[in-house]
Structure formats: structure tokens, C-alpha cells
Amino acid sequence: MAWGEHAAWVSGHERGDFYGRLLADAAEAPQRNAGRKKIVKPSDMPWEMSRQGLLKHMINEGMNTRMETVDVYMQIIPPGSRSGKHRHLAEECLYVLEGHGYDLHVDCDVEITDKYFWKPQDEVQRFEWEAGDVVYVPPNTIHQHFNADPARPVRLISAINRIYKQCGLNDLEQIEDAPEYDPDLVLDAETIRRFLRAPTTVAT
User: Fold this and answer.
1) Bridge partners of 85?
2) N or C: which terminus of the chain carries fewer CB neighbours within 10 A?
3) CATH code for the domain defined by 41-196
4) CA 154 to CA 67: how far, in whole Å?
């Protein structure tokens, strides 16, 4: 035979229909997508009391929407409180819907060899923001959001690309939990309203 290595590549008994599956998936996509939501009502957006804080998921891979590439949630930070502190490889942007406060960011040095290492730098950067601003979080940055108003909640809209996760780079680490985090908490309308109110003070 013309190819000297043919004795190796002609061996094996495994069979696959991977390309056929790609064709079938492409053909079925229009019908499948027709059943996915283009409009997501507030009642269909799940609430979560997460380690990062109080979230209302607007678009998520686990929801039946047409969005394929981006996850979006609204985060509510109660008056005078803060989010959790975490770090992830994917970059993130947040639109400040309501309130004012600041972010603390720590850049990390990264080394990728046979293993993946990261080390926080010494400098802590502070960024002030208010309603109407967009906050950018660079890749692999430790970050935390603070509500500077003791009387009103902050509302943020967070958007993050799924491509990192789909490429096997779902490097997410929680460093500090939000003060309100309680895994046993049952969220309902009244509980959520309570987080929107300023804490009451007891006169002495």
C-alpha cells in the first residue's frame, strides 16, 4: 500500500455515527427551538439564595430558553450588605439597575502547565459605581460587590458567557459567602420583600 502506517490505522472494530448525529441535530433544531421560550416572564425566573447572594435567574442553561451562550441573573444586595466573594475564569459584566456602592477586585497571577495555578496579587482595587453604570470584571479576578446605602437595596444584572464552561473551563471558586446565605431558607414573596427593607434599629 502507498501509506506505510496503514497497518495501524486500518485496525479497530469501533463504529460511530457522530457525523450523522450532527446532521440529525441540525435538522431537529428548528422544531426543538420552537418549544423554547423567547419571552421569559418574571414568574418563570427562579429565585435562589446562593452563596453569592440573593439571585433571580433571568436566563440560564437550566431554563428552557432560546439563549445558547449567555447566562444572566439579577442580584439583590440588601441595604448596607454585600455579595459573596468569588473568582471565576470567565469575564463578567454587571449593569447597575438601582442603588450605589462599590466593588473590591483582586487580580490573580495565573500559571498553566500540566496543572492550573492561580495566586492573588497584593493590591486590592476599589471601584465606585451607581445606577446606570456597567461594572466589568476581568477573567480570573477575585471580586465582591458592596451596597453603600444603609436604607435602600442594590439591584445588579450580571451577564456571563457559557463558552468557558463549555470548553471545560468552569473554574469557579467561592471564597466568602454572602451574609444572607442560608441553605435552608425557603424563598417566597414576603421573604424577598424583607431583604429589600432597611434593617430596623432598636432604640436604647
Assistant:
1) 176
2) C
3) 2.60.120.10
4) 26
